[in-house]
Amino acid sequence: MTPAFGFSVGDFINTINLIRKITKALKETGGAASEYQDAVVELTGLQHALQHLEALQPTQDNAGQVNAIRGMALACKIPLQDFMTKLDKYEESLGPWAHGSSLGGLGRKTRWAVSFSKEVEKLRAMVAGKQISINLLLATHSS
């Protein structure tokens, strides 16, 4: 039975889980800052790899494969660039040279922990499928 004031046991459990997540994010070591920095390193590396793939030059023998590789790289690069632009607002609060625990920094850490880290996972999943295709194309291109 739901209490008359509109809260249920599930609401309290969700609140407790949210508090745990925020607490983890606000820790100085680990938490949101580490997740953010790991994501930036990973996504920057991916961005560089995609640039190299886009720079592949086709020959008469492999034009179809190289163009397919370049197309898949471009399909990853555009959402990645958009995402990297969104990440910029977290750099001051979560980057390696972040300044102490300002109130704004706490807000960014909380926002990262609550919602933005899930966006990183969505991007990873989207890129993973394309990466498999790119790897298959590169394997056949190399042989």
Topology:
Elements: H1 9-26, H2 31-54, H3 63-87, H4 91-94, H5 103-142
Helix pairs in contact: 1-5, 2-3, 2-5, 3-5
Compact summary:
This protein has 143 residues and is mostly helical. The protein has 5 helices and no strands.
Can you tell me about this structure?
The chain has 143 residues and is an all-alpha fold. It contains 5 helices and no strands. The protein has helices at residues 9-26, 31-54, 63-87, 91-94, 103-142. Residues 1-7 have low confidence and may be disordered.
**Poorly predicted regions:** 1-7
Span between termini: 66 Å
The number of helical segments is 5
The backbone outline, from C-alpha atoms, is elongated
Calculate Rg over CA atoms. 21 Å
What attributes does this structure have?
single chain; 143 residues; mainly alpha
